[in-house]
Amino acid sequence: MHSPVAASPEVRTARHYGLDWLRIAAFGLLILYHIGMVFAPWHWVIDTDRSYPELIPPMALLTPWRLSLLFAVSGYASRMLFTRSGGEGPFVRSRNLRLLVPLAFGMVVLVPIEMYIQVATRGYPHGYWTFWTRDYWRIGQYYGREFPSWEHLWFVVYLWAYTMVTMGLSRLHRLPGASPAVWIAKGLRILWAPLLLMGFLRLAMLFVIPEKQGLFTDWPGHVIYYPMFLFGFTLAAQPRLWSAIERTWKLAALAAAVSGAMIVFAEMTWKGDAIPPHWAMAAERGADVVMGWTMTLVLFRLAERFWNRDHRWRKTLGEAVFPFYLVHHAAIVFFAWETLPLHLGPWTEFAILLGATAATCAIFYLVGSRIPWARPLIGLRALEKGGTGLLPPTASHSVS
User: Fold this and answer.
1) What is the DSSP letter of 209?
2) CA Rg value for the chain
3) Distance between CA 376 and CA 65 in Å, rounded?
4) Collapsing DSSP states into helix, strand and coil, what is residue 168?
5) Alpha-carbon distance 399 to 225, whole Å?
6) Which residue among 106, 248, 281, 359 has the highest number of C-beta atoms inside a 10 angstrom radius?
7) How far apart are CA 370 and CA 365, in angstroms?
8) In whole angstroms, what is the distance from residue 215 CA to residue 344 CA?
9) What is d(CA 59, CA 280) in angstroms, rounded to the nearest whole number?
10) How much helix, strand and coil, in percent to the nearest 5, is found in the chain?
């Protein structure tokens, strides 16, 4: 088997604009999803006094594939960055800079805002300064919260870890033989083979390993997210897989529709934090795996067929995505905390949260991108000599 990073004779060197647009749309959808979680029946970081069951179907249809898609797109982008980096060493150094530095910044500046609000709503008696200088840095349970916490930055941690694991595999797996991509590209294998692997691993862990977020505890998540990352990483080096996606996308769409209907049925039957019986939970987890994989195939096909074209704002929007991701979660939690006591109507509250979060994200990016020392902190490449920090519509960048 070839190394995961071994170049294919057919490897594309041109940018795939469709996946750029898909990445932009996926992160935009993530922001809307997190705003929706404020109002949904499930418990989140901060909740309204009244939840809205009407949100269950759309939220339930987004949940199974939104993160799978993000890891697949990130895997593809990582492979393209590797191609342009000039080797494993420069690529690893680049990934460390572009992921670990923003992670550290977020843990020091952004996550404390969310953690303070969470303990404040549970009766924490002190102000933010006392919390940030003293209590935020503790380890263990405190006011019902576990410290330290990544909060939404767990995605950055996982992405970095998956990248490092893939680089490690590239050194170990240099055996002769055909690439797995050759096998999986035949017939309908790209549709059912990954489902068998991920579905088996996911269901084997159900009721055995707790679903607990964390780099060394979230094995039910890793058996889904890392294969999705590796799929995107491999797809960038094995364009033959695009033909397999084109051949199977209609069946994938049908499977996504059926599994989505099962998920909505389960969520509407056992609403909110109600715990379904074991058989129903297993069926829903299996449907989650099916929908996560098949929706990714469908959306990749749409990106290849309809969105693979450039636009003058694509590069700027693509660069802004990661800074938006870093700050949006803290912004939503903060503005919800400030406005929920006003008991506004749901549509007014939603409009305020959406507008305030969008404005915060835009300011965070526009200001940070213009300050040379701040750019690495928000995940952006260092300025070229004489650069202004704001990408014009025709400038270039690399996705995270």
Assistant:
1) S
2) 21
3) 30
4) helix
5) 19
6) 106
7) 8
8) 38
9) 19
10) 70, 0, 30
What is the residue type of 291?
Answer: M
Q: What is the rounded CA–CA span in Å between residue 270 and residue 126?
A: 39
Q: Which helix (H) or strand (E) holds 146?
A: strand 145-147
Q: What does residue 145 show for φ and ψ, rounded to 5 degrees?
A: -120, 145
- Phi and psi for 11 in degrees, rounded to 5? -55, 140
CA of 231: how far to CAs of 60, 88, 246, 259, in Å?
24, 19, 16, 21
Q: What is the distance between the alpha carbons of residues 364 and 119, in angstroms, rounded to a whole number?
A: 25
How does DSSP assign 96-144, residue by residue? IIIIIHHHHHIIIIIHHHHHHHHHHTTT--S-HHHIIIIITT--EEETT
CA distance readout (Å), 397 to 28, 36, 214, 318: 19, 31, 31, 8
Phi and psi angles of residue 141, each rounded to the nearest 5 degrees, phi first = -75, 135
What token pair was written down for 79? Answer: 């492979």
Could you tell me which of 360, 296, 331 has the C-alpha nearest to residue 117? 331
N- to C-terminal Cα separation, the chain: 28
Answer whether 68's CB lies under 8 Å from 199's CB. no
